[in-house]
Amino acid sequence: MHPNIEVEVAGLVLRSPLMVASGVLGSSGSLIRLVSTNPYVGAVVTKTVTYRPRTGFENPTVVDLGYGLLNAMGLPNPGYSNYRVELESVRRGLEIPLIVSIGPSDENEAEEMVKELDNVSDGFEVNLSCPHVENLGIEVGADASRVRGIVKAVRGSTGKPVLVKISPNVTDFVTNARTAVEAGADAITAINTVRGMAIDVNAMRPILSNIYGGLSGKAVHPVAVRIVFELYEKIKKPVVGCGGVYDWRGAVELILAGATAVQVGSAIAHSQSGLKVFNEIGEGVRRYLSLKGFSSVKQIVGLAHLEH
Ligand SMILES: Cc1cc2nc3c(=O)[nH]c(=O)nc-3n(C[C@H](O)[C@H](O)[C@H](O)COP(=O)(O)O)c2cc1C
Predict the structure, then answer these.
(1) Alpha helix (H) ranges present in 170-276?
(2) Average pLDDT score over residue span 208-215
(3) What is the average pLDDT across 252-263?
């Protein structure tokens, strides 16, 4: 038996449930093209693009903790208008959906960005959860009325699928996700990084130039599993799981918790095999399905819930 690993998320048909998480590859178009040739990559989410160009924070911006990465890049990106030009050529000839991640700080920015990026994307992921940039990300994502306003503006400006990426750094992430769904989100991506900090004990100072950063990788995996599990029961839209997926087991765990698709971020940077990590995860998921007697990955979504 050769189990089918195709899934559908918010109307997008993906040849594999594995997506490239936003940011880890940077904003380079050539890397997007390269990763999209991997048969186990179902979709690529771009680096988050903001209204105005951002240079990002000064180094050091990333600390490798072994069990995860702590980053405060500061959302460096060329701004949506410049990025549109690059995405136009990237999307041409791409075999898989290109999901453009946007980080608007209000509804006016959201509307303008989505209208201009609409014809270079197959869908949007609204990043309302970056934990280390002022007036963007979590500052927006923690405020229900701003979430509502921005998601409504995005919804009203495109007919394409809209994913909203939520933060683990707020107590009431379920309310946030519900607000996003009520405002028109087709799916929720969970999770972004967990706010953290590292101190250099010799220098006796914080390591990151921004002091605080976002923790990703293996360390956050159980947090992602828990949040996906809760969202699966509490919202009526698909959940895209993200956080610490390094191998097939991590991906299967998120799917059993309720994720329809799974994003891979830090593992690309961390794993010895680089982009081949997608082959290892994808082939492992297939083997698992086969051993368990399933013919399709769709059959195991949410199976860890007690009612099954
Ligand atoms: C270096 C780096 C840059 C990131 N940049 C973004 C970004 O631009 N937008 C975003 O929504 N998430 C960003 N993230 C978060 C990831 O997309 C993902 O939500 C998080 O890292 C957890 O998944 P992982 O453990 O597989 O990396 C970034 C993460 C890292 C490590």
Answers:
(1) 173-182, 221-234, 248-257, 266-270
(2) 95
(3) 98
